[in-house]
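SEQUENCE-TO-STRUCTURE ENTRY
===========================
Question of interest: how does this chain fold, as expressed in backbone structure tokens?
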Amino acid sequence: MLLIHPPIAKPCEPPAGIARLAGVLRGHGLPCTLLDASLEGLLSLLAAPVSAADNWSRRACRDAAANLAALRSPELYRNPDRYQRAVADVNRVVELAGRPQLLLGLANYQDKELSPLNSADLQRAASRPAGNIFYPYFSRRLTELIEETRPAMAGFSLNYLSQALCTFAMIGFIKQNFPGLPVVLGGGLITSWLSNPGWRNPFAGLADHLVAGPGEEPLLALLGGSLRPQYHGPDFTGLPLADYLSPGFILPYAASSGCYWNRCSFCPEKAEGNPYHALPPEQVLDDLGQLAARTKPVLLHLLDNAVSPALMRVLSARPPGVNWYGFARVSPLLADHDFCRALRRSGCLMLKLGLESGDQGVLDAMDKGISLTMVSEVLAALKQAGIATYVYLLFGTPSETLPAARRTLDFTVAHHEAITFLNLAVFNMPVCGQEAQALRTSNFYQGDLSLYTDFAHPLGWHRSKVRRFLDREFKRHPAIAAIIRRDPHLFTSNHAPFFNVPSFKRSNA
């Protein structure tokens, strides 16, 4: 089996999905080859000559190799200004390579003619793979791997819209040059598309099999096997672990799927009906110990929608031996100062918190299950323990108004010293969510594959007003502007923990 992670996704850590599949397949005696075509494709663009007309572009092209090396070194993360410039310069080279047809970057792929939300455009991308910017790379690499390994199938893990057009260009290349090779298409984006009650498969003739949700059992069945009860953890063997753009190897690991709360209104997890499954904490510790021994990570990225309190207790009592971060729900456990100090001693550098709003009425309407009093206590306890926070705020939900949004502004300002980083988002209504049925909706994006729908806000707090508030009020407050400036350029939360590593910080001496 050839398992492929297609362009473009942030090239800072390996793809956890295909590593998880590889662990199960190899554990059942089925060989597989892993290809991170996103990382390799981006590095191929960065190594190619690019035309540069202005001083910034010429500098970025000249220093591309040095900046890549710097991004892989802890030294750069001791100087936030140098870090921001290095990331911007590397991204500039990729951007130049995509002109004029593409809006391209380290985490972005937008075609001015083709949309990833339009199945006809994806089919067009498949019909003319040579038109894709990565064609010189993937035509050579896929040919090399397929001829060398003779896989029974080629599987694509499609998780982000930024990967969709490249995925179908690569599928088109396989169908044109290796027509007897079956193609399996899975991943988070495919799961979301297939969860829509109105789904009609537009990819017949391109994808031989579509897989929603966890792919281990379906892949084994397609390969003539069956899932045995013995557990097999992820396997990153074959991926270029030293090539990612981070100061050492980041180990991505999911201890659960779905969300243990699973009650928040308008949440895609709830809308898509994804169940919650968690590995036993003892299994998690065993996995992490084995993976750390093999890969020598500098950081553990827990991919869970929310790390469970049970797992946090185990991690605090039996540290994994590597610094870590992940999403967590605001809970009384995190308001306990002693527990937060133990969590920090376990290696926890940062927690991502989905606050969403600083207005209690909005939180209650969303069924977040948290109080602002508890949020204040959690932020204070994490700050006292030395754990950075990456706080997520969501504006424009159906229950929010301008006064409520201003209360979120006031809450954020009042707690700005305990908020290390901020993520600001404008609400999108999931197209298959039950809540959308109670509102007047309209097409949000042109295309039959859109995951979201526009809606008439019941309180008149429409998207244009939300954006105006964010741009003219929220982001302009000095305390908030200072937080926003700290956000690592492009890599955001994936690199943010490195700015809270004591050995990486610049000495004050």
